[in-house]
Amino acid sequence: MLSEHAPRTTVQAPVIVHQPAPIQPLQSAPVVVQPGHIPTVQTIVLPDGRTVTGYAINPIQPEPLAAKPVVSRAAVNVALGGVGFLAVCGGLLMLTTFIAALAALVQQLIILAAVVFGGWIAVQVLGASRGGTTVNIRKAIFKRNHFHG
What we know:
Layout: E1 41-45, E2 51-55, H1 73-126, E3 141-143, E4 146-148
Antiparallel strand pairs: 1-2, 3-4
């Protein structure tokens, strides 16, 4: 076991230095691009008498401000809100019309079912009896609210 005060031996790793590889020149000849125009040379005499000569630099033009719209944004928003409201009202009108048409259809189907079922019942009761119950109807006499059969 090593104590804390025991001398330690350190092994140093060899230092490796990497040298960048030079860029190989292109095999083709470089293309010289001429400027579209030759800039003008300007000479300025400073107040202390010194003369400065150099190329003239055009001042940087600021970007034009965005043109203000003819109609305000609030007016556009109100108009769009009105169009949306009208679209919703039209949709609600169509929805209520659809519901009313559906209710009329259901009502007609109920009436049709009642007519068909009533007709079936009438045919059963009033149709030709084939061994069914015979009902004899005779003349009944009512005198002074009394039945005389």
